[in-house]
């Protein structure tokens, strides 16, 4: 009987630890470039800024339709290029810190007459019930963008 | 004249970037870029081979004389400033000192202005401006009305304007 109680206690403690781990969540592991300051790092998002307020934002979206990376790549490009009028500057593969392959797009649009660029990296993380779409977005005025984009790409390679 | 304007513009901008140039302005299918002067004619040739050119105008503005004049004025102003600095060292009367300082401020402003003009001209010399108006051979197919929002909710939450407004 004492043995059964001991096992039950271990199960309860383990479950509680597991639940507390879920409730507390875990933040993103990502080495941001030197000139960026992380202003938020929670399990649902990471935000970082440069002194000039170039923005780096990592977010996740649930996808219970379980679309593939190729599907979402086409859907994104269709929306960004055709509906929003962005110009696609560059497109290619990108890899995160766990070796997962994603899509990287470099886009440009004009806001109040000034060119603004974005590096958007998209990863699809398969799951049992649904997939998770992880999106890394780096947005800055063109000049600032060009200066930092290589550093941001290197950061994406450390994202887990 | 190209089969479709949007893909042609994307190709053109990629070529310009590859040539070390950049987009200066875009208004619909009219695209203005700046390309390194030495790549100007190569870029023009690229345009000719990637579409039918219906009209072409090349303007050249010779800025050699303006650069020479500006450099001469800058040299004179800098020499005057040096002379004023020497005079300031030997000046003893307050009235003289104030007069020299006033002249030094004027010369400094003039030198900065001349340097700025030279920088601007130097950029004009280094880069050439190329404006290309793209026209499609046939009207682009628009089978459905142009939509403003994606049917995939997460797609609507990403993009430049979303990051800038919601970050």
Report on this model:
The complex is a heterodimer of chains A (160) and B (167). By secondary structure, chain A is an alpha+beta fold. Chain A has one domain: Mog1/PsbP, alpha/beta/alpha sandwich (Protein Transport Mog1p, Chain A, 3-Layer(aba) Sandwich). Chain A contains three helices and seven strands; from the N terminus they run αβββαββββα. A seven-stranded antiparallel β-sheet of chain A has the order 1-2-3-7-6-5-4. Chain A is globular. The relative contact order of chain A is 0.18. With 167 residues, chain B is mainly α. Chain B folds into two domains: 5-60 and 126-166, no CATH class; 64-124. A three-stranded antiparallel β-sheet of chain B has the order 1-2-3. In chain B, a hairpin with a 2-residue loop joins β1 (22-27) and β2. The A-B interface holds A 47, 55, 57, 59, 61, 63, 72, 75-76, 78-84, 86-90, 107-111, 115-118, 120, 133, 135, 137, 139, 142 and B 6, 9-10, 13-14, 17, 22-23, 25-26, 146-150, 152-161, 163-164, 167.
Biggest interface found: A-B, 36 and 28 residues
The largest beta-sheet of chain A arranges its strands as: 1-2-3-7-6-5-4
Strand residue percentage of chain B: 5-15%
> Percent of residues of chain A in beta strands?
35-45%
- Note the run of SSEs of chain B as H and E: HEEHHHEHH
Which segments of chain A are poorly predicted (pLDDT under 50) over 5 or more consecutive residues? 10-24
Just name the CATH architecture of chain A: 3-Layer(aba) Sandwich
> What helical percentage do the residues of chain A reach?
25-40%
Could you describe the largest sheet of chain A, including whether it forms a barrel? 7 strands, antiparallel
Q: In CATH, what is the class of chain A?
A: Alpha Beta
| Low-pLDDT segments of chain B | 140-145
Report the mean per-residue pLDDT of chain A as an integer.
86
Largest sheet of chain B: 3 strands, antiparallel
Oligomeric state: heterodimer
> How would you classify the helix and strand content of chain B by structural class?
mainly alpha
Q: Can you tell me the number of structural domains of chain A?
A: 1
- Termini Cα gap of chain A: 45 Å
